[in-house]
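Deliverable D5.2: sample structural annotation.
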Amino acid sequence: MKMLIGILGLTLVVSVLAAPLDDARNAEILRYSSENIGIDGYRFEFATSDGTSRTEEAELRNPGTDNEAIVVRGSYTYTGSDGRIYTINYVADENGFQPEGEHIPK
């Protein structure tokens, strides 16, 4: 029984040591840009060493009217746990958040 417990313990240690590292925790910023246009909108983008990237921009539509609204457009890309690269493009406006991507059902 002691030998079985020892083997199971050794197997656990080996499997933990062999597990891939979570690159997201160690990701470095490769690119970053940000523009604050003021009350009329903003724009930013970044990319990290783990393959994650994001761009987003916003603009104020119909300023000073009852229909004043901010419209946000952007996209982000990441590597899923299955190793596939996913990209989501989106718009957020008076109609809500509207994402699109190959893996998102229509």
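Annotation notes: The first helix runs from residue 2 to 18. Confidence is low (pLDDT under 50) at residues 1-19.
The annotation will be released with the project's public dataset once the embargo ends.
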